[in-house]
Here is the input.
Amino acid sequence: MRAPTSGPEVAAGDVLLAVENVSLSFGGVKAISDVSLDIRRGEIRAIIGPNGAGKTSMLNVINGFYTPQRGRITFKGQTRSKMRPHDAAEGGIARTFQNVALFRGMTALDNIMTGRTLKMHRGFVWQLLRYGPAMAEEVEHRQKVEEIIDFLKIQDIRRIPVGRLAYGLQKRVELGRALAMEPDLLLLDEPMAGMNLEEKEDMSRYILDVNDHFGTTIALIEHDMGVVMDLSDRVVVLDHGIKIADGTPAEVKNDRAVIDAYLGVAH
Amino acid sequence: MDLLYKIFIDPFIQMGAAPDLLVQTLWEGLVAGVLYSLIALGFVLIFKASGVFNFAQGIMVVFAALTLVGLHEHGVPAYVALALTIAVMFVLAFAVERVMLRPLVNQPDIILFMATFGLTYFLIGFGELIFGGEIKVMISDQLGLPKGAFDIKFAGGFVSLQKIDIAAAVIASLMVAALAIFFQKTRIGRALRAVADSHRAALSVGISLEQIWVIVWFAAGLVALTTGIMWGARSGVSFALSIIALKALPVLILGGFTSIPGAIVGGLIIGIGEKIGEFYWGPLVGSGVESWLAYVIALIFLLFRPQGLFGEKLIERI
Amino acid sequence: MLYRETGQYKTSYAADMAVFPIVQDRVGIAVILFIAAVIIPYFGGSFLIEAVMIPFMIFALAAIGLNLLTGYTGLLSLGTGAFMGVGAYACYKLTTYFPGVNIIIWIFVSGFFAAAVGAVFGLPSLRIKGFYLAVATLAAQFFLSWLFLRQPWFYNYNTSGAIEAPTRTLFGVAVTGATSTGVTRYYVVLGFVVVMTWLASNLVHGRIGRSWMAVRDMDLAAELIGIRLLPTKLLAFAVSSFYCGVAGALMVFIWYGSAEPLVFDVDLSFFILFMIIIGGLGSLVGCFFGAALIFILPIALRYIPPHFGLPIQPATVDHLQYMIIGALIIVFLIIEPAGLARLWQIGKQKLRVWPFPY
Here is the structure.
């Protein structure tokens, strides 16, 4: 299920995305101050830290929603100072949101189908006719989408407008939509938020499977430390917009600064 | 070359050649601007307090004026008719809150906006049914409004300032000042601002949304009545007013949807801009430029400063 | 019992994604088309055909145009009347300069003129959203109305300021002008409406429709998926204006036979907008429901009370029409914001399980 996206191929283990000395502020508020981090192809990278640390802002910068005042992003060897969200999409970056950003007027199936938009090329005139090449393309991509639906076990809710789905299912559909883009880099913003233990285990399993089977590089923001420790290969810790630690889960868990700022100690 | 001259040089020469005409045109623009501002003010009131963009403000102006004149036609003395009309506007505010706003609370803004379209058309039909569609004369004399004009000699010619227009400007300023004080200094004003920010948060601190909305729509109704009297005194009361009221939209774009001073400044800019544009540049392209100039000005403005002169910049958080 | 899907298994994705997946729906459409193409022309009187069906279809077409823009893409437009006018005047000028070319072609081509104008006035939509965009479309409405009224070139410098449809033929039969029959004109309109509705349905069910709806529901997320906002919005404006332009041309050439520029005013824009609000935003079938209700209403008001012996003035009919439409808008927005189309869907749901309650 891996179709090549635009840009040069990056071998497993090499740096896929590098954030260098990025600073971002809104008016007077400094969201990110001089942060550098990298993400290697094929790994699961966690970004953690207390609320307001700048984690979501960091994802937004990687995505192209915000343009940092300083610093640069290098993705698949190409350095960009300014990137628009659809450039990021074309480059192979997909994303989910804290507050599920699904298209409420459409069914789950249609939502996931929108993820295939970049890969559908039949032009306006064929779309007008529908029957013929446009339909063949629809069917071809429907097959891919059905594979994702099978993978995420959401067959029953295909035709239900997403506004009516339970929160946990909405998050799964959103993941499906991101997967439909066949991204090189998948950004997950608090994928476990609001879930109970069982749902968290399911979602963790999906995230691991995506990384294992499809080889997708994943960056995720998460508060649940158990999840972070289990899932991630490397962790970066932010606090008040500054990077305070960067390493394997074990290293970070025992880092003095991280414990002071975020984890705390068992009393 | 000739064309460039016609567009960029000639109108200004004309302005200089007859300064009394220029001042007259500026004054006419100011007068129109004051009336636009008053209508915009009604919009701002309701939008500030309920987030509803009340498209029906224009027809409320007409409706208020018609009620006043209609009552007088049936023999009711002028000031009594005025008091009764105020009561009618209160009843209208109450009815709108009950029938339209309460069921639609928490719906997206665009739904409420469309509901005010429905209200507009309903009031147009209702007003025409009860009062008839012909142009009526405003009861300016009976209300004690001034008549006649000041003719001032100026630069070789003269400028004519209608007393009713001066009265309109004065009354409008008083009204704006009163509203500004009301919003900033009184408890109810604070509650209105709270409701404008968030319905749910306001509810959670115990503010009664229903009462606030009735108050606000009533206030807008009073503004509408004042506007209706002033405008009716100038040009007679007719349903054509409600289309002219659409002009308040460009005013709001310039001034921002939530700013009272913005409504004033925006109204003046649009009023003056329109009149000057029509008088000096209109003949170049065939007259009637007034019908669209305001909107095009607003459109150009939107492209460069989407939040208007005084509005707040929208920052979307993801 | 009648409307069951049992036994209808889809064995391919294509079948699953069909516009009318259920056999009963397909039969229903065939019946409607049969009635429209055969029953009405042969058995309907000239009043039904010329004063009811022709305008109803034309309004439904304009409603489809507006619904594509406002209902599917979420861009509120108050300029529908003006875009219809562009189509009408484009057709008029084209047939004035090239009278030999078939009028059907010119009606179709005038849609492209309207599409171009629509796209130009849609350019601000990249920076402007929501109410503000509605005001920008008002700029289009008032400016274009002024053009048609004040620039004599548009009405061929005639003294009345109105435009009149000259007689044109198709395969030797008059389709416009005084000599054409109601039935011929009915078929012209029917042809346009059926074909264009089919095309709109195709668009809406595929990639483009999904892109439009994504822009409507959350444009930031749509950008994330890779949907480019400006081309998507401009396409919506262009296609929408195309439909409105053709509807306008049909209005002048096939229905009225002539038109004053005031016909394409802001009132018409609101008229069409009300049709799609009541009919259902984001629904093609809703366009037909909305057009039917808003168009048939004044006719019903005019003719039903006298039947019961209650005399009613024409002016009163107008006033009542405004009141009822205004009240209906509010009622629908309260009870069923998704309009008559949703009520129709709910009805079909109930029909699926009939005679059981659930």
